[in-house]
Amino acid sequence: MKTASRMQRTWVALLLVTIFTFAGATAAFCEVQASNFGSSLHKTGAGQKYWYDAKDGLKQITGIPYSKLDCGNCHVKACKTCHTKSIKAADTRDVNTCLNCHRNQKTAIAMDKAAGMTDVHAESGLICNDCHVTDKGDDFHGDAAAHNSLYDKGAVKAKCTNCHEADQNVRAHKVHGNKIACIACHAKSSVAFVNNHFDSYLAGGKREGNMIPAKSWTVLMNNADGQVTAAAAQSFIYKNKKLVVYYPSFSHSISREAKKCEDCHANEAVKLIKTGKTVPMIKKQGEKMVNWEGIAPLMPGAL
């Protein structure tokens, strides 16, 4: 009996050590996350301000200081913005936690759903956390470094190659090598928000109804690393002044099947550009706005 009693006390002691060790490790982990979070893009919202204030940014046509806009209101001010139920990571595994702020992605997902298209990762049950919080890095809480925007090198750790290796038996992989980003071929389409009437938005305070979402094309452009990648687009109107912006964007409309060679090479957009014509990305036909369908390369004055 004494031996059994001693064994029970030993097991209880070991259990308590395990609990306190785990609790201590969890607390330390949370402390690191909280420390990193202070300089993260989710916390600072630096990305939108950086591009708004850029020499070719929206401020050039509005003249309004970024501090006078409400763009920063959406960015995360405290843990509870995302940890609505508890501090446990498991309680944040809800895609709507992210989509409450990432409204462009929310619109794109809804448009894909209406078109009968589902992202291959979503189809497999993956959500934002699965790619953006891994052993490669934590895009939610940051890495303690201050970044101007998500386009800074190392700002976003989520990459296709974190999980996938390019199959060198596929001819396109061998031909293109590292010159083309995965999404250039595997993105079903890229999203655009055209005719953003910025003055109307400022007057009414609502984004809805002041822009036209489009998702029937894929624009291709070079990213900062020189790779061809998929791009999103936005066009703004402010007091009859216009600004069109194209920027690399990870389209969460990924297809298992890649594009075919002819989808990019010598397609209709390329033929128009070669003859000196512009590609009508969006045009009015009667009472309807009709979007371009297919792939178009971003070239100065061509779109």
Helix and strand arrangement:
Blueprint: H1 2-37, H2 41-44, H3 46-53, H4 59-62, H5 95-99, H6 103-114, H7 120-123, H8 128-132, E1 133-134, E2 137-138, H9 171-176, H10 182-186, E3 190-197, H11 198-204, E4 212-222, E5 228-238, E6 241-248, H12 261-264, H13 268-274, E7 282-285, E8 288-291, E9 294-297
Parallel strand pairs: 3-5, 4-9
Antiparallel strand pairs: 1-2, 3-4, 4-5, 5-6, 7-8
List keywords for this structure.
303 residues, alpha+beta, 5-stranded mixed beta sheet, two-stranded antiparallel sheet, 13 helices, 35% helix
Written description of the protein model:
- The chain has 303 residues and is α+β, with helices and mostly antiparallel strands.
- It has one domain (38-297).
- Helices cover 35% and strands 18% of the residues.
- The protein contains 13 helices and nine strands.
- It has helices at 2-37, 41-44, 46-53, 59-62, 95-99, 103-114, 120-123, 128-132, 171-176, 182-186, 198-204, 261-264, 268-274, and strands at 133-134, 137-138, 190-197, 212-222, 228-238, 241-248, 282-285, 288-291, 294-297.
- Strand 4 and strand 5 (228-238) form a beta hairpin.
- The longest helix has 36 residues, at 2-37.
- The protein is globular and about 55 Å long.
- Residues 16-29 have low confidence and may be disordered.
